[in-house]
Design brief:
The chain is 41% helix and 14% strand. By secondary structure, it is an alpha+beta fold. The radius of gyration is 28 Å and the shape is elongated. Helix 11 crosses helix 14. The strands form 2 sheets. Strands 1, 2, 3, 4, 5 and 6 form a 6-stranded mixed β-sheet that branches. It has a 5-stranded antiparallel β-sheet with strand order 7-8-9-10-11, with no helix packed on it. The longest helix is centred in the last third of the chain and has 24 residues, at 419-442.
Amino acid sequence: MMGRQVGDQSQLFYLFNLERRVPRGHLLRLVNPVVTRILVDLRDELAAFYSDIGRPSIDPELMIRMLIVGYCYGIRSERRLCEEVELHLAYRWFCRLDLDDQVPDHSTFSVNRHGRFRDSDILRRVFEAVVRACMDAGLIKGEGFAVDASVIEANASRYHGKTPDEIDWSAPERQTRAAAEFLAGFDDEDLDAGRKPPKLVSPSDPCSAWTAKANKRVQFGYGINYLIDTAHAIIVDVEPTPARTYDEVASTRTMLDRTERRFGLKPKRLAADTAYGTGKFLGWLIGARIVPHIPVWDKSIREDGTLSRGDFHWDRRRGVYICPNGKVLHTTGKVHEGNTLRYRASKFDCEVCALKMQCCPKTPSRQIPRDVHEYARDVTRRLMRTKAFLKSRDERKRVEMRFAHLKTHHRFERMRLRGLSGARDEFLLAATVQNLKTLALRIFKPPPHQRYVAVA
């Protein structure tokens, strides 16, 4: 039976040890040694973020620890994060705050978060230090990598999109970091590459892209690009891009080059989905001596009943196509649209051919486009029939699971910061936390009776 509580049973003084209140198997206790070692190694670089004049600022180590807590437990709001650190004993312990220590005000934390590390590479240094810890623990084999991208909704209204010409970029409300990054990137890259300007941009976050890839709903978004080692799904690099397939594929070269430069890791094979199976990218991979386990992006098959390109024989020695009736298709060697050669049959051969209505009923002669990197596509087609390719196809699902966990367990479905620099900081923190959790749960395993705490 339960008795009634009577009287005031409170004590005047308490002997309280915060260290003893955090269970041995708690996730934050497991990742704390790694985080502490990393922050100690970065202490000299963090010294520049301490201020000796003006209003006291937030300790950069405290700020990084609080951000790790927020991204680890899906606390997306700065206000709520400060409240949770105020009340949660394990969060206080991880952030090295005693019971009497004051938690930063949410407004001060928000201001510091939006402007503190945006012009530095501190968060990337933290991410790379975690990757090295995973390498030291034997979680990275460096043999098979997988790459993929997922769309994260931008912090911008989907109802207020405008064409770039409609926006007055000199207006006071447009003098933002995100707008400056968009204009600088537009001048330096898009015009030089000959790419067309976006048809629709967000005035508040113009770096984001108008896309319908996420849940089939049209919105502004960013692409979070993960390059993982397939052995234990450790994220070895992350790169933000606008949510456009072209930019996502191009970012893979950046991540592969940076991974080799920073960690000395170069995969033997790379797995990806069909969006990465373009001739240009496959040619680059083969040139870099990385085996592409990627389905070829092939649109040469016709569905109108006429002959497809596969019905024509490619004579590699002569560099010509031969039609089913034995006639030769030549090319002038001119490259169209930057990556395509056009092979044409003689008009006189096609006019008298019995297969004309099945081959080119609407044109005087048959024309076949061929990618300048078609040799790489042919090599990849042969690889698609191997057992190793089928194995990589299954391993590629691990990068998709990373995105699923990010959105489900970490509640990362919408951006908090704006601009590519904001997306970079958010994606680096998300990848850092995911690697820390993998490192903790695979290496620093809690006791069996407390293991449930680590995955809470």
